Amino acid sequence: MSEVSMVVNGRKVSGNVEDRTLLVHFLREHLGLTGTHVGCDTSQCGACVVQMDGKAVKSCSILAAQASGSEILTIEGLAATVDADLHPVQAAFREHHGLQCGFCTPGMIMAATDMIRRHPEGLDEQTVRAELEGNICRCTGYHNIVKAILAASEAMRGSAQQPKETVAA
Amino acid sequence: MYQTNYHRASSVADALKLLEDAEDGKFVSGGMTLIPAMKTRLAAPSDLIDLRHIPELKGISVEGRKVTIRAATTHAEVATSREIAAVCPALCYLASHIGDPHVRHMGTIGGSVANNDPAADYPSAMLALGATIITNSREIPANEFFTGLFETALEDGEMITAISFNAPEKAGYEKFPNPASRYAMTGVFVAKNGGDVRVAVTGAGADGVFRASELEAALAANFSPAALEGKTISADGLMSDIHASAEYRANLVVVMAKRAVARANG
Known about the structure:
The complex is a heterodimer of chains A (169) and B (266). By secondary structure, chain A is α+β, with helices and mostly antiparallel strands. Chain A folds into two domains: 2-75, Beta-grasp domain (Ubiquitin-like (UB roll)), CATH 3.10.20; 79-158, DNA polymerase, domain 1 (Orthogonal Bundle). In chain A, 36% of the residues lie in helices and 15% in strands. In chain A, helix 4 (88-95) packs across helix 7 (143-158). The longest helix of chain A has 16 residues, at 143-158. The two termini of chain A are 23 Å apart. Chain B has eleven helices and 14 strands. In chain B, the strands form four sheets. Chain B has a five-stranded antiparallel β-sheet. A four-stranded antiparallel β-sheet of chain B has the order 11-12-13-14, with helices on both faces. The N and C termini of chain B lie far apart (46 Å). In chain B, 52% of the residues are buried.
């Protein structure tokens, strides 16, 4: 067993977990944060994407113990980073109908916010499609997801709603 | 996955001691291969020694044309390194096409090189660049390092701490990724230094990464895709699996080599 502690969505949390516990299971089962999904469990689908110390990672392929000491952002904490009901990426997914069943959506949105952060110069369709290779959607055909990300990227460049800098725990 | 014991190492010396004390321990860095392998029970180490928090294993330095990348440097860090891009942009391009963005935030060059997956991208670059694999105890030339499928010259208890190479005049990488896994079904890294041209192939060889000497000779005489027109390589010793036959891969080697040369020539 390991004692792990980390900051999740701005809140300091800790727990005793088996060393083999995956980060996604710690989030879902120990913290009740079930917005982060387990899709394929083979690191291909991206439904489990969260941000660790400001970078998108696949929480099904990281041990909770590896993540101990880090700062984790999940879909549940995203809107609070901009003090709004919905983060601009969430709002764009709603506006552009970037989801159908919704299973992949949390991972898509956490990947999209990371993608926008890494491309402050802006995004084009080809870049968005290439950058989405780690996230699988079986409903939408990606078209509206791509539209939503492009719209969110524009909205975030044009407004003051830039995410706050994350502060290391 | 099976139960395992997690240890976080604070230094190389600490990591080596933890490994020595473990019954059947393994180093884990990004874990992008090892953790999935443990989930499918292809690997079941009794202990995991985490190298991700060791300061001496991190960082990139470029002095003149000599590039040194410490082992726990992530693919994302190599992909976005302006210092490396200034002397060997082909390596940044290669790193930016490993896995997906999330994997690149975790996976490391040391982990990829140590694992020597026959379809991994980095081994081809190491071989074509004539890189040196630096461990806690010695320096190993790339052409002696990769010894077979998932096999390397590393001894038990030996750890890669960095890799280094002299940036060539020109280099290029192209791969044909498996549409699902994104692993290279065939990837070719070419490097040119004067009349010395090296063509290293990943994803295709039944024994892992190898140099295509027939293509090297043609490119040494004329470093252009046209020099490879009509060239073929033997399918003997190439991988055949559900994704592609050996013959298909043999053809891909030439096609990817042409594209890599075109990219190297800019």
